[in-house]
Amino acid sequence: MVGYGFMGAAHSHAWRTAHRFFDLPLTPVLRTLSGRTESALVAAAERYGFEQTTTRWQDLVEDPEIDVIDICTPGDTHFEIAMAALAAGKHVLCEKPLANSVEESAKMAAAATEASRRGIRSICGFSYRRTPALAYARQLVAEGAVGEIRQVRAQYLQDWLSDADAPMTWRLDKDKAGSGALGDIGAHIIDLAQWISGQDIATVSGILETVVPTRPAAGDMQGLGGKGDLSGERQQVTVDDVALFTARFDSGVLGSFEATRMAQGRKNAMRVEINGSTGSIAFDFERMNELEIYDATADAGRQGFTRVLTTEPEHPYAAAWWPTGHGLGYEHTFTHEIADLVRAIGEGTDPSPSFEEALQVQRVLAAVEASSADGSRWLGVDPSAPETTAQTSQTSQTSQTTPSQERTR
Amino acid sequence: MVGYGFMGAAHSHAWRTAHRFFDLPLTPVLRTLSGRTESALVAAAERYGFEQTTTRWQDLVEDPEIDVIDICTPGDTHFEIAMAALAAGKHVLCEKPLANSVEESAKMAAAATEASRRGIRSICGFSYRRTPALAYARQLVAEGAVGEIRQVRAQYLQDWLSDADAPMTWRLDKDKAGSGALGDIGAHIIDLAQWISGQDIATVSGILETVVPTRPAAGDMQGLGGKGDLSGERQQVTVDDVALFTARFDSGVLGSFEATRMAQGRKNAMRVEINGSTGSIAFDFERMNELEIYDATADAGRQGFTRVLTTEPEHPYAAAWWPTGHGLGYEHTFTHEIADLVRAIGEGTDPSPSFEEALQVQRVLAAVEASSADGSRWLGVDPSAPETTAQTSQTSQTSQTTPSQERTR
Amino acid sequence: MVGYGFMGAAHSHAWRTAHRFFDLPLTPVLRTLSGRTESALVAAAERYGFEQTTTRWQDLVEDPEIDVIDICTPGDTHFEIAMAALAAGKHVLCEKPLANSVEESAKMAAAATEASRRGIRSICGFSYRRTPALAYARQLVAEGAVGEIRQVRAQYLQDWLSDADAPMTWRLDKDKAGSGALGDIGAHIIDLAQWISGQDIATVSGILETVVPTRPAAGDMQGLGGKGDLSGERQQVTVDDVALFTARFDSGVLGSFEATRMAQGRKNAMRVEINGSTGSIAFDFERMNELEIYDATADAGRQGFTRVLTTEPEHPYAAAWWPTGHGLGYEHTFTHEIADLVRAIGEGTDPSPSFEEALQVQRVLAAVEASSADGSRWLGVDPSAPETTAQTSQTSQTSQTTPSQERTR
Amino acid sequence: MVGYGFMGAAHSHAWRTAHRFFDLPLTPVLRTLSGRTESALVAAAERYGFEQTTTRWQDLVEDPEIDVIDICTPGDTHFEIAMAALAAGKHVLCEKPLANSVEESAKMAAAATEASRRGIRSICGFSYRRTPALAYARQLVAEGAVGEIRQVRAQYLQDWLSDADAPMTWRLDKDKAGSGALGDIGAHIIDLAQWISGQDIATVSGILETVVPTRPAAGDMQGLGGKGDLSGERQQVTVDDVALFTARFDSGVLGSFEATRMAQGRKNAMRVEINGSTGSIAFDFERMNELEIYDATADAGRQGFTRVLTTEPEHPYAAAWWPTGHGLGYEHTFTHEIADLVRAIGEGTDPSPSFEEALQVQRVLAAVEASSADGSRWLGVDPSAPETTAQTSQTSQTSQTTPSQERTR
Question: What superfamily does domain B6-128 belong to in CATH?
Fold first, then answer.
């Protein structure tokens, strides 16, 4: 594993735990932890349960004992490590974002596809997909439980930048972080909206905003929520803290998206709602063990959103855990991810989300940025596609799209 | 009163009821009900408690006994009736939308301003403002309870058009209705967002959509929710059923708006959320007796959204009604509107929302429509203002706006 | 109408409003308001819309123009007025409690039964039954939606006595009020639990408690929530402020009941939950437009409590009001009560709750009081019934009861 | 560790995980797993990560390498194992119930007290105490956040016995299980109510019920939720499936308790609510990451239940885990328990809940059973205490108790 921060803690817990609750064809061993700062690295390795450490990530790639490389570093290093790992025949779990640019992502996706032919597996860490409620939502939508999709609504609301005196961090520096709310949390709802709906986003119109453009330098105490050093000069924030965009999926369906760190009081409100012709599903990660399901075909008088506790044996992943009504937590999403990855490796199948799927998310992010820079003009996500016309007037647009949809019902 | 449909029922209830619960300087008398179809009109007058009827609305304008004219007809008739009434020195309550065009609305606003100098009062029926929770939200925001506003989020979600076989109605015909979801329900959240935040919308970028472009003709049974005549030809829907737009308020704050009739399972989810630097408020009309308040200055560990039942004596309008915890319903918003209007007439003050405020809403609606027709380009709301630049890149925009906001805190 | 307090306001609103929204065979006229204090009476009559007033309630009984007498006075006067009214051939609406003793209640029930033979109708004001969600709950249970009932759970939680310095009032004086939380709010959940389940309570074991036994005298300002006169001596509270009891219904089902004014933060949390073999229903008056329904026969994985907004045309009373999702308020329960009463009078049928049903509630109240005074011993509700054996060990009890229930399924 | 069932899985996960997230003075090693069935035992040991196995639990007691013995077996074996372990100088974690009788529990408590003098630690597994929201609730109550406690309300609602054809299991056989809903889930809310309120229960009046007295034998498939073998004879259930009781705490405060497996739709609704003179707290384990707090001293108009996500650094245990808003799950309660136990061992302090506290719970359970068998008569919990008088009439009772409480405020 490369990287030992917050993601390192979550991933190593998952590697230690997955085979304790799931029947896996292989049993993971935590071999080597890699990182830059020797002392912190050694402490982390002991804490996380790794056998050894190295400050050279290349050592992992070169170690014949190692089968899987788990990349938990910041996005700007993903490309180099992942490409080397795939070339060396290692299975790769790469945290999102796949890379900091579409170009790098595309190369990684191509490399992963090629590696797959050699039996090498790769997966990008959109771990929220493994929330039982969301995996179940996808299943329901695929089974037709909401009918024809009418609208998609996705929000990722946080609040830790609401305070104008919250300190500057590397996450707010475009050179280091690549992107702000859009790339960090917006990427998750893009992935989920596409995955649950079974549709790709084709065009977008959006705006990025930096509501608080300067912040005090971080003082000694530097956690989220505290104040920065108010005595010194304020530093420039160079990424967005709010991202709003409208998307058209390739079916013609509209989706509205919001990623923000200015939603005072919303701690981790990652919400997805799909409205269809015969039903809806709604989810909020602040209540991650619940899925709200609306069935418009139920008896008149008895229709409403049903709050399902997704802790029943029928729900994805739930049977491996506790009795009904005993909820799961955030880190279970990672444990499920590792379980699925190990199973895929053992069974010789490709796990998802593939690098190709992650590339599609990357393209959407890039299109939103470009649209924002261009006055919220509608832009196509796939540069190789013919010029999109999503921005044409709604009547002509929909009179082309929807009737054909209806014909196929 | 002109018009005896759904709004006529709500208004006449309010006229009969307001002085029974509020101390008013004047006591309303329901004199004449006007409408087009004689038999239905007579039945409605008896049901609603009017003394007499007429099929000529001009009779009301000419009747010296009548002090107030309440216009509950479709939007395309508002202009003519309201202008005549104001000219004749009648106080006017005009249902929203003020008119079907900005031009007519502007003339009405000018006429109302002029009439006010003669002691004639006018008010536009954005009755949701009189929901105690929303009136209290405005008060809290004005008192600084959320600090500096960071974001506005407003949705009006309904679902009665989710079924592609719900029948065609005049509301879906642009010639008659003027607008679809945007004008009918979007207008409410535009008004509320501006009123609660105390800020006007300056520019917008939006898209209107007709998700289901053809519908069966209405059969004999024609209520919401039923099926149309599936045997005949389908008719063209000429208004939007989904409207999505992003707005920039004159302070620079961004707001996201959605009005839809495709949100399966959402019956009347009119939601407003204001996020600020030190707090938030959130509301959903499906739970109209509740306001959610977040206070970021509360003790660490005890912060969260507080669900306030707005039935305490401290809440607007609530003291006139029942003991705490005994909720109010939809029609109370109208009763409060009438109470405020009668009080304003008696006291010789101008009630709100004024026609001028309603005109501002109308301008926003028109700008959204224009933006949608122009590829979601950012457009200014006030045509007399210098060319807006909201669509410029976010960094320059916000580095101009926000520091000055911060200076004034 | 006799009495012009809070209940007088609610009832007169209902009398004025019912025929405006419901098709009734008769149109109510508010003839005479009776009360003790001349000046307040006259003001109330004007406010409520009565034609005339009298300080002698006997005048109403003697007035041949009057068909219905609505009794909104404190419980100790109900017996005399209702008996006189029935004797004089007036239809009677009597607020709950029917009377302050079982003896009086029994005589009133007998008189009502006898009067019914002469075409005279009587009804006791358990108005919460007319909450659409609760009327719908009864319908669902009767249709078998929850299967065989397993348990009943009912709470009425308020908080206005939590503060030990809330002032003494007549409601806390046993001589005047008859009972405390038990009789005032507990009576409602007893009535609802019996009505919705379709079963009578047979035996009870309970305890009454006065958590704060002395209170300051009321000062000048005397509303709920304020402080009493803290300078003077404290007065003795002689009724309960908390009542807890367990009940066994005549089918053998157990129910748990709580009525309290010490539940800090609960404003009007009147809650009823029925658990059955195949489903459950749950209700909280703080969200009076919602009913939660659980269906254990739904597809595995999709089971959960469904939040139904009871504003659909399929829900009792709802079709008379507004479009779906537009909620009703507290006073609608009274309007529905009057509508049903007027319809019953017009159609010559007996409305419910009858005085007989109210007598059953009274008997339960008396049994709870007696049980509390006797160390929470199990006591039968019906004194004419053979000695009850509810307190025998559970195994023998249930082995007698439940198998026979199961045989009849 | 002795026992490898559901609890064994939860405990071993906690032993493996605690030192990965908490700074502990000692690092646990999973030495030996003991159980009865060899093959299942070996599989479990591998799954859970134990070094070796034995079918003789005595081997653990005799092994000098072992410092801690974790008892996860059914209640009837606790006494023998724990006494032997303590005698051998092993620290003991004993699952609840401490034992199946008050007598055994008392001996174990005495042994634990004696062992403590030798530096041997013991703890009983009421793990729900380590839910962050509940640990925080206790802290708030202790700090006076709710003022003087007025009432306690506790429920543990499950539904897996609602179906009369759910199969017979050993849990429903009194000889094996000792108790039904009361002992299994009621014990948790008794412990929590006492722990959070800081008060012991002094007297109780209750009733136990077996709603479904016979059940089909378990067929091949035997999980919760399925049907038993409907072709054969039905077997007798000899424990309660519903337990209702009222308790008086030693301060005089009343509490109402319910433990049931008949609450259709409630999966794991362990609820605790404390109402006080100046505030309330409310919790439901189905939303275990939330605590509802009501502050009656907040500004008028802004009072309401605040939904706190207990994932902030200020909340007990939360800082060891993820960023704010990222919830924890059921098994975290065990991980926290192990962390606290290991820390106590390392620091030489006694962890809680002690065997003495567990004995108090056991006494309450026994008193409820005795009360149920004696017609719900009020019975004292502590047999050594003078005859209790809780069942005397409320006026005299409370006029004795409450004034003195008030004097001390």
Answer: NAD(P)-binding Rossmann-like Domain (3.40.50.720)
Determine the Cα angle at D127 with ends D122 and D131, to 5°: 135
Distance CA A123, CA A126 (A): 9
Q: Quote the CA–CA distance of B94 and B354 in Å, as a whole number.
A: 10
Residue by residue, DSSP assigns B173-208 as -HHHHS-SHIIIIIHHHHHHHHHHHT--EEEEEEEE
Six token digits for residue D1 = 């560790």
Domain ranges, ordered by start, for chain B:
6-128, 132-287+289-328
Contacts of B49 in chain C (CB under 8 A): 20
User: Are residues C13 and B13, on separate chains, in Cβ contact within 8 Å?
Assistant: no
Contact B17 C20 (CB under 8 A): no
In this prediction the pTM is 0.94
User: B242-249 and B254-260: which strand pairing?
Assistant: antiparallel
Helix or strand run (H / E) with residue C135: helix C132-142
User: Does C296 touch chain A if contact means CB atoms closer than 8 Å?
Assistant: no
Domains C6-128 and C132-287+289-328 share a fold: no
What single DSSP character describes residue B171?
A: G
Beta bridge partners of B33: B53
Interface test with C, best of D236, D389, D395 (most C CBs within 10 A): D395
Distance from CA of D385 to the nearest CA of C (A): 19
Q: What is the residue-level pLDDT of chain A in tens, covering all 409 positions?
A: 998 888 999 999 999 999 999 999 999 999 999 999 999 999 999 999 999 999 999 999 999 999 999 999 988 899 999 999 999 999 999 999 899 899 999 999 999 999 999 999 999 999 999 999 999 999 999 999 999 999 999 999 999 999 999 999 888 988 877 789 999 999 999 999 999 999 999 999 999 999 999 999 876 444 445 677 777 889 999 999 999 999 999 999 999 999 999 999 999 999 999 999 999 999 999 999 999 999 999 999 999 999 999 999 999 999 999 999 999 999 999 999 999 999 999 999 999 999 999 999 999 999 999 999 999 999 999 866 544 444 433 333 333 333 333 333 3
| C-beta of residue C167 within 8 angstroms of C-beta of residue C240 | no
User: What crossing angle do the helices spanning B332-347 and B6-21 adopt, rounded to 10°?
Assistant: 60
Query: Is there a contact between C164 and D394 if contact means CB atoms under 8 Å apart?
Result: no
Separation CA B266–CA B259 (nearest Å): 12
- The candidate with the shortest Cα–Cα distance to D14, out of A46, A131, A16, is A16
Cβ burial, residue C134 (10 Å; 0-12/13-18/19+): buried
Contact A322, A311 (CB under 8 A): yes
Q: Beta strands D149-157 and D254-260: pairing type?
A: parallel
- Quick one: B132-287+289-328 is in which CATH superfamily? Dihydrodipicolinate Reductase; domain 2 (3.30.360.10)
Phi first, then psi: what are they for D164, rounded to 5°? -65, -15
